[in-house]
Specification:
Helix content is 42%, strand content 19%. It has 129 residues and is α+β, with helices and mostly antiparallel strands. The protein has one domain. Strands 3-4-5 form a three-stranded mixed sheet, with helices on one face. Strands 1-2 form a two-stranded antiparallel sheet. The relative contact order is 0.14.
Length: 129
């Protein structure tokens, strides 16, 4: 994933801001991965050692990439009722590996997704009547 794609640039100020997880899912077309039945792991490599982003830290960039990883993990739990492994590698002068994990709040959110879909579907049916 090209590091520049993590950012949107304000035309007037020239300042970079990190894109949100939802936008990155679209930019990199990651949503269709949820239909891959044989996928068991995803590795996200972030090479940012030679970039100088004064308005954003490497830690912030990694947080966004971990958010993408969590979204993928939660999506597989909901769509296919199975777990995948996501690893985020950061090559910032040295190599570090972050194994993405879901915490209690994430697990609770996963439990809520099917309920929200069901409620949304019943709202549409009610509105159609």
């Amino acid at each position: 994933m090209p590091i520049q794609e993590l950012f949107s640039i304000n035309c007037r100020t020239g300042l970079r801001t990190l894109r949100c997880v939802d936008t990155l899912l679209d930019v990199f077309a990651l949503r269709p991965l949820l239909s891959c039945e044989r996928l068991c792991g995803v590795r996200i490599n972030c090479v940012c050692g030679h970039f100088n982003f004064r308005d954003c830290s490497t830690h912030d960039m990694l947080d966004v990439l971990v958010g993408v990883g969590k979204w993928l993990m939660m999506g597989f739990l909901v769509q296919q009722e199975r777990r995948i492994q996501v690893i985020v590698n950061d090559y910032h002068g040295w190599s570090s590996k972050t194994v993405v994990t879901l915490d209690e709040a994430d697990e609770k959110e996963v439990d809520e997704w099917p309920k929200a879909k069901k409620a949304k579907g019943s709202l549409k049916q009610t509105a159609a009547r």
